[in-house]
Design goal:
Layout lengths: L14 H27 L4 H23 L3 H16 L1 H10 L5 H24 L5 H20 L6 H24 L3 H23 L9 H30 L1 H6 L4 H13 L5 H19 L8
Helix pairs in contact: 1-5, 1-9, 1-11, 2-4, 2-8, 2-9, 3-4, 3-7, 3-8, 4-7, 5-6, 5-7, 5-11, 5-12, 6-12, 8-9, 11-12
């Protein structure tokens, strides 16, 4: 999820196309939370959804990996493991298990918001970044919104889901930091995480984990395979990269602030998970925080 274009790209006529690509990617990622919640509430398990997501994604992205290789010269083995954990099956599985306990709208707010805070904090600890004051205001807004979801909006039995969402955010933050250091193209990174996830996860899934693919309706399987495997794994990353190239890094990335709001709207429409007023306030606080943090994000250090 890295872009090389500068902020002047938008001035060269890319504003509307950049917004279209960015909004397309944000809607796809927001829909991924909702579709995962829909799947685990119906005929499929979290294990089935992850198998479909990375099985289909691995097939589509195999030519990219064959062309570019494992990128060990940039990543090292530790970096490669962090890339797969944060952009592959471990992250997606933890998120999906969390959504067996808590609503998609809460996942869509907590995971992107907490990930952004963790990236900012780890940037200070690892690279001695010195973000300006508005970044800390952004982190504060995200933390307040997250606490509103974790305490005020929480219903009995949702606590394990919130813990899973925070852990998923930590895994995703590791993925972002590795990409920041290695500067891999998004599609190459996606191919690594998808194919290595499939290679490690699918044998375990087929041999040891609950498998409902033989009994679930074909429509449910096709929906998850198409959306998670094609749209989320491939198109979402491509759309984000195009938005960053056309709008510039800060403006393109700041569109992720819309994920909590769009996820909440889609969850209400498709899952009948109607948000309470404090849910809406929390989502907007987290979105505001992401904008402040993203706009003030320091440049990545040279590798």
């Amino acid at each position: 999820m890295s872009g090389q274009a500068g902020n002047g790209a938008a001035a060269r006529g890319g504003l509307l196309p950049g917004l279209a690509w960015g909004l397309g990617g944000v809607v796809v990622w927001s829909g991924s939370f909702v579709l995962t919640r829909l799947g685990v509430k119906s005929t499929l398990t979290a294990y089935d959804i992850i198998a479909l997501r990375y099985g289909v994604g691995a097939i589509l992205l195999l030519p990219v990996l064959l062309k570019h290789g494992l990128a060990l010269d940039r990543l090292g083995w530790r970096g490669l493991l962090m890339l797969v954990a944060g952009g592959g099956a471990p992250y997606a599985l933890v998120s999906a298990i969390g959504m067996t306990y808590a609503p998609a709208s809460q996942a869509g707010a907590l995971i992107p918001g907490m990930m952004t805070v963790m990236v900012a904090i780890l940037g200070v600890l690892l690279w001695r970044d010195r973000p300006p004051g508005q970044a800390w205001w952004g982190a504060g807004a995200i933390l307040v919104g997250s606490l509103m979801i974790g305490w005020w909006s929480s219903q009995p039995g949702q606590g394990p889901g919130h813990v899973a969402f925070v852990f998923a955010a930590l895994l995703w933050a590791g993925y972002v930091l590795i990409l920041r250091r290695a500067r891999l193209p998004a599609l190459h990174a996606a191919s690594l995480s998808a194919i290595l996830s499939a290679a490690a996860y699918l044998p375990v899934y087929l041999l040891f984990l609950p498998n409902h693919l033989t009994t679930a309706p074909l429509a449910d399987i096709a929906l998850q395979a198409g959306y998670q495997g094609v749209l989320t794994t491939v198109f979402g990353l491509l759309a984000f990269n195009r938005a960053v190239a056309l709008l510039g890094a800060a403006a393109g990335a700041s569109l992720s602030a819309l994920i909590p709001v769009i996820t909440m709207a889609l969850a209400a429409l498709l899952l009948a998970e109607i948000p309470q007023p404090h849910d809406v306030a929390a989502a907007f606080l987290i979105a505001l925080g992401v904008v402040l943090l993203t706009a003030s994000r320091p440049k990545a250090p040279r590798a």
